């Protein structure tokens, strides 16, 4: 069974024509969709009205629509995004030795604010700390903050004071790569950022692939059959920046043929 592909339109303003062409070149259909989540199915996902509610489907798009699909469709697999496993509080326990953020605290947002002075005394460098939400569907983007802006950045999390946040010692990062992993191997990948600026470029250096291979041999736990490893250069060598969803991560400059092949193969196997 070949899957049907569902591609959410206008995600971060990025084009999808190249991905569509590869999918159709493999003899599969690709539906461009837009969420209209207050409508009744099948009109809640515009463009996918003709897709069976329990079909073999691969989705790529935002975390918001991915979560909705998991709740309101019976698509197999639908996509690969285990929200629980992709929280820092879960995968850090497995990949901790290989992570960029090794000196950190995970605590409720209200406590992170209450303990600001203590946190800065333990984790700040140059008057700044790095903060990000625990959850993969981030209320705010991870960033470096100083003591004056710290509480303001955390404010969105306070709607639920127990929302977990991660606070870490700042790290210097060089080049970053996005690797699409199929269980225990890197299916494809590309350069992602350089010195904090988005700069996609094809290919992944051999040492980065070898690092990922060693990590995957060392850590047997997986958040999903397919997932993303974001890897970076640091003062301490190559490190994992974070884990992400296969279905909700931009493809950057990866080999789209390899990307489509591995996703379609795993979707058919799950079906």
Structure description:
This protein has 271 residues and is of the alpha+beta class. It contains 8 helices and 14 strands. It has helices at 17-25, 63-72, 88-95, 109-114, 116-123, 147-154, 206-218, 256-270; strands at 4-8, 30-35, 45-46, 56-60, 76-78, 104-108, 128-133, 143-146, 164-168, 173-182, 185-194, 197-202, 226-234, 237-245. The strands form 3 sheets. It has a 5-stranded mixed sheet with strand order 3-2-1-4-5. Strands 12-11-10-13-14 form a 5-stranded antiparallel sheet. Strands 6-9-7-8 form a 4-stranded antiparallel sheet. Strand 11 (185-194) and strand 12 form a beta hairpin. The chain is globular and about 55 Å long. The termini are close together. The model has no long low-confidence stretch (mean pLDDT 95).
Helix and strand composition category:
alpha+beta
CA gyration radius, whole angstroms: 19 Å
User: Can you tell me the overall shape?
Assistant: globular
Give the CA-CA distance, first to last residue.
7 Å
| Oligomer description | single chain
Count of discrete alpha- or pi-helical segments spanning 4 or more residues: 8
Order of helices and strands: EHEEEHEHEHHEEHEEEEHEEH
- Share of helix among residues? 25-40%
Number of beta-strand segments:
14
What strand order characterises the main sheet? 3-2-1-4-5
Summarize the biggest pleated sheet.
5 strands, mixed
Q: Which residue ranges are poorly predicted, with pLDDT under 50 across at least 5 consecutive positions? A: none
Mean pLDDT: 95
**Percentage of residues in DSSP E strands:** 25-35%
